[in-house]
Write a structure and sequence with these properties.
By secondary structure, the protein is of the alpha/beta class. It is 36% helix and 14% strand. It has helices spanning 39-47, 62-72, 84-96, 112-120, 162-170, 225-236, 245-256, 258-281, 303-312, 336-353; strands spanning 26-27, 79-82, 103-106, 124-127, 147-150, 177-180, 201-206, 219-223, 284-285, 293-298, 315-316, 318-319, 329-332. Bound molecules: 4'-deoxy-4'-aminopyridoxal-5'-phosphate (PMP).
Length: 354
């Protein structure tokens, strides 16, 4: 052992989904939006002058935060913007989860929560989902150092209604409760409307899914002025210029085009509902997803074998080799054409198995 080895911080990192390159690949593995960003985003990108990159971007992110505040009908100082919601969530963990008591989150959930807790030395406990993969609000009634859960949950896609979200909040008014709404636009009701009632609530959303901009890395949190100010203090203790200039400019354009936003969501939801029917007919079962992915398991086909077979055909989905999840595949909703190719392959594969 080298002398420095016991004095360094070691972590087991989060493993993101593959980003395969190549023609004809059907990428249904990281819950990206299959449609391009709003037309105004393309136009603004084309008009961006490299001369502008000479200067630092606005550290206060004023224009984009203001635009989000208008859109979500809150005050600008209730909005915090970061480099994807991963960045926002990491800062929120650092800022708000600073208790000796364990923070709570579901055992089957976004696997980054555990990684941040380990990285920052935050004690945590997980609450098991029920047999139907649902979050049980009563598991969050006990004493804790903070609560976080995604709504809809990932990778199940299951949505908690606002009554249940409020139930968790009502039982946790002495700690910060973070609702990670990465997938809320695909069919859920946001907890944003609970902000007036609960000043300990932080709602986190992203531009990576419904707004088609995973490549720009934009995420944001909305909460009480006090929580947002605390988040800003953490950010300025870390890196004043987290947001690069192109993302600030293009982010505004994405928010401005609400019609396009709603239209692409509508298409994805439509494809998702058709995909549920198709998967059912093929013998798959799955929780009733309200997100842009379906977490499906087949009665006869092994998920790990199917995952490899799909990959061999250039169709990438996500497989989690974990207890309770090992026979499921998480399939992102692509375009109708992409889904058609997936289903043609599945039909042949399952027929050959029979
Ligand atoms: N929360 C959940 C539940 C997610 O699935 C993801 C996507 N991996 C994120 C947050 C982070 O997304 P991003 O950093 O792209 O905003």
């Amino acid at each position: 052992m080298k002398p420095w080895e016991d004095k360094i911080r070691r972590v087991v990192p989060y493993v993101p989904g593959e980003q395969p390159k190549g023609q004809g690949i059907i990428k249904l593995n990281t819950n990206e939006n299959p449609y391009p960003p709003a037309p105004g985003v393309r136009k603004a990108l084309e008009e961006l002058r490299t001369e502008e990159l000479r200067k630092y971007p606005d550290p206060t992110v004023k224009t984009l935060a203001g635009c989000l505040a208008d859109y979500y009908k809150v005050e600008p100082d209730q909005v915090f913007v970061g480099v994807g919601s991963d960045d926002v969530l990491a800062m929120a963990f650092l800022a708000f989860f600073n208790s000796e008591k364990p923070i709570l989150f579901p055992d089957i959930s976004y696997s980054f929560y555990k990684v941040w807790a380990e990285l920052f030395g935050i004690p945590y406990e997980t609450a098991p989902l029920d047999e139907a993969f649902l979050i049980r609000p009563e598991d969050y009634y006990r004493e804790n150092g903070g609560v976080i859960f995604p709504n809809p949950n990932a990778p199940t896609g299951l949505l908690m209604d606002l009554k249940q979200v409020e139930d968790v909040l009502a039982h946790n008014q002495d700690v910060i409760v973070i609702v990670d709404e990465a997938y809320i636009d695909f069919g859920g009701k946001s907890a944003l409307e609970l902000l007036e009632k609960y000043e300990n609530l932080l709602v986190v959303q992203t531009f990576s899914k419904a707004r088609s901009m995973a490549g720009m890395r934009i995420g944001f949190a909305v909460g009480s002025r006090e929580l947002i100010r605390i988040l800003q203090d953490v950010k300025y203790s870390f890196n004043s210029y987290t947001m690069n200039l192109p993302s600030l400019v293009l982010g505004v354009e994405a928010v401005r085009d609400d019609a396009y936003f709603r239209e692409t969501i509508g298409r994805i939801v439509d494809t998702r509902e058709k995909a549920k029917e198709r998967l059912k007919r093929l013998g798959f079962s799955f929780p009733d997803s309200m997100s842009n992915f379906i977490f499906a398991s087949h009665e006869k086909a092994s998920a790990s074998e199917l995952f490899e077979a799909l990959k061999g055909q250039g169709i990438y989905v996500r497989y989690f080799n974990q207890p309770r999840l090992e026979n499921y595949l998480r399939i992102t909703i692509g375009t109708d054409e992409e889904m058609e190719k997936l289903f043609s392959f599945l039909e042949c594969y399952l027929k050959d198995m029979a």
